[in-house]
Amino acid sequence: MLSTRTLASPTLRQLWTRPSRQATSTRSFVTIIQQGHEAWRLTFGRNPVKLVPGLRIAIPLCHSVQHVDMRESSISIPNLPGYTSDNVPVLCSGSLLFRIVDGYKSCFEVNDVHLNIRNTGMSAVRSVLGSFTYDQVISDRNELNKRLHIVIGNSISNWGVECSRFEIQTFQPANREVERQLEVQMEAERQRRKQLLDTQAQINVAEGHSSG
Predict the structure, then answer these.
(1) All domains in the chain, ordered by first residue
(2) Span 114-139, mean pLDDT?
(3) What is the C-alpha separation between 167 and 177, in angstroms, rounded?
């Protein structure tokens, strides 16, 4: 029999009382569904039942509960290497905003919906980027965002997920050497356009003199 002094020891007292706390936590027959979420309760891994926000019954060992965040969320797409249609190597990053609109499909039609949304977004960025030239992306980034929105939205709709929008955050050449070559190319293009304008101006002057 343990003495009162022995039970007063902090270490032994913690060991003595810990099993009862664990038993209490595992005997919880309720689960809380937060506002903005929904959940699906399975009985022995089958027969899913939708649970709305509030205090709901979930019997240990008998029930398992999968929670779904129905609010708009975002996934960051890191710097991805890719090529534009004119073979310029670039790095592109962005943010994919989405909302789960069908909790049942997001739970049971796909394994790890957030990971698959991220992978789909990364694949779409590389694919769609290859259909734009470097100058097109620089001059009209919104068009790239719109195309990504459509492509990603069509890919993830079967999982009960809606793509709200895609925002390109950074778009730049893959390295300094590529950036330098692009600068030289753009400078040459500016000089070519200037020469065309100068030539056209000289022609206009010459025609003015001849008509006079």
Answers:
(1) 27-69 (no CATH), 73-176 (3.30.479.30)
(2) 92
(3) 27
Single-letter amino acid code for the residue at 7: L
| Closest C-alpha among 149, 141, 49, 127 to residue 82 | 127
What is the reported pTM? 0.72
Output b/e per residue, 164-185; b: 16+ Cβ within 10 A.
ebbbbeebebbeeebeeebeee
Where do we find the tokens 């394994």? Answer: 111
Sign of the dihedral defined by the CA atoms of residues 200, 206, 211, 212, in that order: positive
**Rounded to an integer, what distance in angstroms lies between the CA atom of residue 44 and that of residue 61?**
8
At 175-206, the pLDDT tens digits run: 766 656 655 666 666 677 777 887 877 777 77
- Contact 98/72 with Cβ under 8 angstroms? yes
Residue 34: DSSP 8-state: P
pLDDT at 191: 72
